[in-house]
Amino acid sequence: MLIPKNNHSIACIIPFFNEGKTIAKTLKIITKSSMIEQIICVNDGSKDVDIDKLKNQFPSVLFVSSRRNYGKVAAIKRGLAQISNSKYILLLDADLKHLNIKVIDSALSSIIKLKSLDMIILQRGRDPDIHKLFRTDIVISGQRIITTSHLQKILKSKKAKKYQLELAINEYFIENNLKTAYYPTNITDKSKTDKHGFILGNIYKLRMWRDLLTYTSLGDYIFQLFFFCRTKIASKPAFR
Predict the structure, then answer these.
(1) Which residues pair with 44 in a beta bridge?
(2) 62: which strand partners?
(3) Judging by DSSP bridges, how do beta strands 10-16 and 38-44 pair with one another?
(4) Strand partners, 65
(5) Closest by CA position to 136, among listed 179, 100, 167
(6) Where are any strands of DSSP class E within the chain?
(7) Rounded distance between C-alpha atoms, residue 4 and residue 98, angstroms
(8) Are strands 10-16 and 88-91 parallel, antiparallel or unpaired?
C-alpha cells in the first residue's frame, strides 16, 4: 500500500542539458506520481528545448534555467535551493528509458516505511551485463532517493563536479556509516553513443571515467564497487 502524499514530503529534482527529446517523456511519467509533492526541473544551459512550451505542458513543474552549462552538481544545487520543506529528494536523470511510475512510487514508499534507511539507489536493471558484473548499475546510478539534510551536507562538504556526484554521495555515506539499500528496477539511460553519435559519445564516455577516477583513488573506487550498498529491497520480480 502506498502512503498518502500528505503524510510525508518528497521533492524530485531533474537536471537536464540538451535533452529536449527526452525531458518531456520523463515529465509525462513522473508527474503522475502519487508520492511526489514538488518537481523541480533544472535546465542547465540547453540549446535544444523550448522551456515555455514545457511550462505550458507541465504547469505543476517548477522550471529553473541557467544561461550556460555549469554541470550536474551545480544544477542539483540550484534545484535544491528551490525546496523548502521536503524530507526526501528523488534525483532523476532526464534521459531514462523504461521509467515506470508504479516502481518509482513503490520505492518512495519503501524509504518512508523503512525509517532506518537514509538512501535508496534505483538499480538500472537493463544495463549491459558488464555493468552488472562490476555493479556500476548501482554504485554510479544517478537515480536516488536521499534525505534532504544529507544531500545538503554532501553538496556543501564534497568538492564533486560533473560526473562525480554519485561517488561523492557514496563516500559520504561510507564515512558517516549511513544506511542505504538498492531497489531493483528496469530503468536504464540512453548511452552516450546513442545521444551523441559514436565518436563524440565515446569522447564523453572517456571524460566521464576520467572524472570518476580523478575524484577518488582507485582503491576507494574498487571498495565502492564491491562493498557499498549491498542490501537489496525486496520488490516484485517484473516491472512492466
Answers:
(1) 66
(2) 40
(3) parallel
(4) 43
(5) 167
(6) 10-16, 38-44, 62-66, 88-91, 96-97, 119-124, 144-147, 180-185, 188-189
(7) 25
(8) parallel
Cell numbers placing 100: 515506470
DSSP state of 139: H
CATH no. for 7-227: 3.90.550.10
0.85 exceeded by pTM: yes
**Tens digit of pLDDT at every position of the chain (240 positions):** 344 444 469 999 999 998 988 999 999 999 999 999 999 999 999 999 999 999 999 999 999 999 999 999 999 999 999 998 899 999 999 999 999 999 999 999 999 999 899 999 999 998 989 989 999 999 999 999 999 999 999 999 998 987 899 999 999 999 999 999 999 999 988 776 677 678 877 787 788 778 888 898 889 989 999 999 999 997 654 333
C-alpha cell of residue 239: 516491472
Helix (H/G/I), strand (E/B), else coil: 218: helix
Compute the distance between CA of residue 36 and CA of residue 5 in angstroms, rounded to an integer: 7
C-alpha cell at 89: 529528494
Task: Please give the grid coordinates belonging to residue 68.
Answer: 550556460
Extract the C-alpha cell encoding 133: 558484473
Q: Kindly state the DSSP code that residue 232 receives in the 8-state scheme.
A: B
The closest alpha carbon to 91, from 125, 119, 55, belongs to 119
In whole angstroms, give the CA distance from residue 14 to residue 91: 6
| Terminal alpha carbon distance of the chain | 18
SS3 of the chain: helix, strand, coil, percent, to 5: 45, 20, 40
